[in-house]
Design a protein that fits this description.
The strands form 2 sheets. The protein has a two-stranded antiparallel sheet. A two-stranded parallel sheet has the order 3-4. It is globular. The chain has one domain (about 5-190). The chain starts with 6 loop residues before the first helix and ends in a 20-residue tail after the last helix. Helix content is about 40%, strand content about 10%. By secondary structure, the chain is mainly alpha-helical.
Length: about 210
């Protein structure tokens, strides 16, 4: 299954995404408000981290998360400072619990993302994918996905991207529900949030790397 996904599935998936995101935003709004206050207190402004990411059909949208790092620049920290140095203990806590991801529910509500799908990566990676790897953009990116429940940042880039394409080729409600269930289990165990360097997955330079 590639470009000819059942219309009924795609329509129902969007309805489920909207209903889930709306319900979660309402229920979690008190927690999100407390996190926003804590980010403002610990890291200052802005509260949210916004970054352009490619979505379905490589259309660019603004991904929204809670900020977890100190800014770079002459008025704060050196521009050469690594992510590991910029992240604060509070930011590390947000990442290890995935609470920094809660604002992405707004991206789901807007239609930029789905609850389940390949994770939205950096715009700069677009020219580094093989034609097969670029097929990950045939569906909406997700808050969670097959790669995330199959090892997440413990996987190599080729492994992650292969899993993204595998998801695209086998989209189904049963598969989505299984990924959500595994995501909950993974969240409870806080598994594979960071790579061996301690913060995030290393930069993707191309299939050979």
């Amino acid at each position: 299954m590639t470009n000819d996904r059942p219309a009924a599935y795609m329509s129902a998936k969007r309805y489920i995404d909207v209903a889930t995101a709306m319900f979660a935003l309402i229920i979690l709004s008190p927690i999100m408000a407390l996190i926003a206050l804590a980010v403002r207190s610990q890291l200052g402004s802005p509260i949210f981290f916004r970054q352009p990411r490619p979505g379905q059909d490589e259309q660019i949208f603004q991904l929204v998360k809670f900020r977890t790092m100190r800014p770079v620049g002459p008025d704060d920290r050196p521009e050469s400072e690594s992510d590991a140095d910029r992240i604060t203990p509070f930011g590390a806590l947000l990442r290890s619990t995935s609470l920094d991801e809660l604002p992405t529910l707004w991206n789901v509500l807007r239609g930029d993302m789905s609850i389940v799908g390949p994770r939205p990566l950096l715009v700069s990676y677009l020219d580094r994918y093989t034609p097969e790897q670029r097929r990950r953009h045939e569906v909406r990116p997700g808050v969670t996905g097959l790669a995330q429940v199959s090892g997440r940042n413990a996987l190599t880039w080729p492994e992650k991207l292969n899993l993204d394409v595998e998801y695209v080729d086998n989209v189904s409600f049963s598969g989505d529900f299984a990924i959500v269930a595994k995501t909950i289990g993974q969240w409870l165990q806080r598994k594979d949030i960071t790579d061996s360097n301690g913060v995030t997955m290393a930069e993707f330079f191309g299939d050979a790397k």
